[in-house]
Amino acid sequence: MDRPHNEYAPVRERIPEPPLPEEITARDLHPAARNELKTLSKENAEQVARHLAMVAQLIDDDPARAHEHALAASRRAGRVAVVRETLAITAYGVGDFALALRELRTYRRISGNDDQIALIVDSERGVGRPDRALEEGRAVDRASLTPAVRAALAIAMSGARLDRGETELALGELEIPELDPDRAFEWSPALFSARAAVLEDLGRTEEATFWTQRAEVAASALGHDGEFDEIIVEDGLIEGFDDIDSDEAEPEPEADAESGAEAEAGSEASGAEMSESENAAGEPESDSAEPESDSAEPESDSAEHVESSDDDAPESDR
């Protein structure tokens, strides 16, 4: 029996989607992300996967177009965690920090993960709420985070301190175990550079120069795109490159005291040992960051969004 037509029911206009090149298929999306789309119908999952694959291709060179594809995926699959995470990242990329915050919170609620906490802190900074940014960062158990996320969070928290004019505390936020000038991991260049910038603001130019140099050496050592687990670095040049097997297992811990910093990195990091000859500059310890009681009132996120809130987002052909 046909349903009676309700002339007063709201009509939801279908928003045109950005075109998808024929050569882009669902298999261009990472298998882990594709696996999250299994709750969708086959046809819908295919289209969502293609949009997400386009985001991955465009995010660095054309963030605005990448954002369009993320919006299209969100309209189709608004209850899938990886879709909301992708939309948050593209919103952040185009400077829509309010939308990024809303999507990041939804992603965290759906997934139960804190792996995007650094982006949450930075987005709070983006909407002009450094106090709230610090509150968000302090609310997370950092011991439960991976080293890469912990380093990104430290950089974001340091930035929030700078927003408040607390330069010494900004330096203290960067005092984490991952700040090891003798080792280079995926997070090292950004972490070293952040420390150099804060030292420069404090007028400690000699120390700033030291950390800038360490950032450059780390970036040079990591130019292998993470293919190898560990590389020996001497004066910024990679030695023993041909002797390392790309499938080599995680390096065994060394017996000396310097190996303590490596334990947390695990198999996620691409390690690079730097020569002690470049580490001549002494680095005095900085004041550690003191927790503060920030009392900024929450503000409502007022970004215009597609029709995909976490409760009412349509998923076509689910």
Query: How many alpha or pi helices?
Result: 11
CA distance, first residue to last residue: 23 Å
Structural class: mainly alpha
SSE string, helices as H and strands as E: HHHHHHHHHHHEEE
Kindly report the average pLDDT value.
78
- The best one-word shape is elongated
Strands ordered across the widest β-sheet = 2-1-3
Portion in beta strands = under 5%
Radius of gyration, whole Å? 23 Å
The tally of strands reads: 3
Tell me the helix content: 40-55%
Taking the sheet with the most strands, its summary is: 3 strands, mixed
pLDDT < 50 stretches: 224-273, 275-318
Protein model, in words:
- With 318 residues, the chain is mainly alpha-helical.
- Helices cover 43% and strands 4% of the residues.
- It has helices at residues 31-35, 42-58, 63-76, 81-93, 97-111, 117-126, 130-138, 147-163, 167-173, 188-201, 205-221, and strands at residues 230-234, 237-239, 271-274.
- A 3-stranded mixed β-sheet has the order 2-1-3, covered by helices on one side.
- Strand 1 and strand 2 form a beta hairpin.
- Helix 2 packs antiparallel against helix 3 (63-76), helix 7 packs antiparallel against helix 8 and helix 8 packs antiparallel against helix 9.
